[in-house]
Amino acid sequence: AGMESKADYDEEAAIKAAIEASLREEIPGSNKPEETLKPAIGLVEYYRDRSSTDALLVSPTDFWYYNCMDEIDRGWGCTYRVMQTIFSNLQKRGRLKEKMPTLRRIQEVLSELPGYSKSIIGSKKWLEPPDANRFLTTYGVKSYDTKYDMKSREQHNKLIMDLEHFFQNVKAPVMVDDKMKTFGIAGISCADRKNVEVLVFDPHLHAKKSVNPSDFDDPKGTLDRVGWKKFDDHFKRKTWMVLFPMSIEYPSRGAQTSAMDDSADWELLEEDRSTSTCGRLCTIL
């Protein structure tokens, strides 16, 4: 990825700080849904049944989005929700036995790690893929987070290749972040190399009621944040942070805040172990 100027970095930080400040001033309960929002179940299966046979999708996972389970996080919790979507995928595959962490629990775990403080607990602190990586590590999940500069044609093509290889083998959701918003990527379709598409699970839904797969049958619905999107339309010409969940200490030992044991037995999340996704990604990224 290309180097960013100090000015660009400061501008982004100022925008985030302004948004966080405005969220603190919101009237309590102003964003509360009409009911307890439940994560969407069966969304991967819904899209698999409606996608081309060459499309590569993740294995089943629940889709978590803003304000799920009575934790109001509109405007700041997108990374947390994608973390929960990844966590759900690992639960369904039997790789994690622990219950789904709440947003507050995520903050509590991070607060015990170097570089964080107790002040994060109960805050509306934005997180990014490196934070998600550190959190997942405490559950024994090894991930690989990196950056792609989409202004570079080489980086553009490499991200397509890496997503394709990843979904062929690992089949876990991928976290992508343009420094302002975080999304889950749940699949890729490369049948037409000139019109590559990605399946976006965008947590920025402002739902009043729980989302179900049947809601997506309405083409005039308000759920257009989720679905197949053209790769170039989604990945604009900017730098993207990307997190690939790679392997897991098996059996999972639950949330721990101590350093990882490099001598422990690790199991790749790949379903096809004839190739090493981790080795390939670490080699070419």
Gist?
Helix content is 31%, strand content 16%.
Structural class: alpha+beta
What is the number of E strands?
Answer: 8
**First and last CA, distance:** 10 Å
Report the C-alpha radius of gyration, rounded: 18 Å
Give the overall silhouette.
globular
Instruction: Provide the succession of SSEs.
Output: HHEHHHEHEEEEHEEH
List low-pLDDT spans: 1-8, 257-266, 271-278
Describe the structure.
- This protein is α+β, with helices and mostly antiparallel strands and 285 residues long.
- Helix content is 31%, strand content 16%.
- The chain is built from 8 helices and 8 strands.
- The chain has helices at 6-24, 43-49, 78-92, 103-111, 129-137, 153-169, 231-234, 277-284, and strands at residues 56-57, 141-149, 174-177, 182-189, 197-201, 226-230, 239-249, 266-268.
- Strands 1, 2, 3, 4, 5, 6, 7 and 8 form an 8-stranded antiparallel β-sheet that branches.
- A hairpin with a 4-residue loop joins β3 and β4.
- The longest helix is centred in the N-terminal third of the chain and has 19 residues, at 6-24.
- The radius of gyration is 18 Å and the shape is globular.
- The termini are close together.
- The model is unreliable at 1-8, 257-266 and 271-278 (pLDDT under 50).
For this entry, give a set of tags:
8-stranded antiparallel sheet, 285 residues, globular, alpha+beta
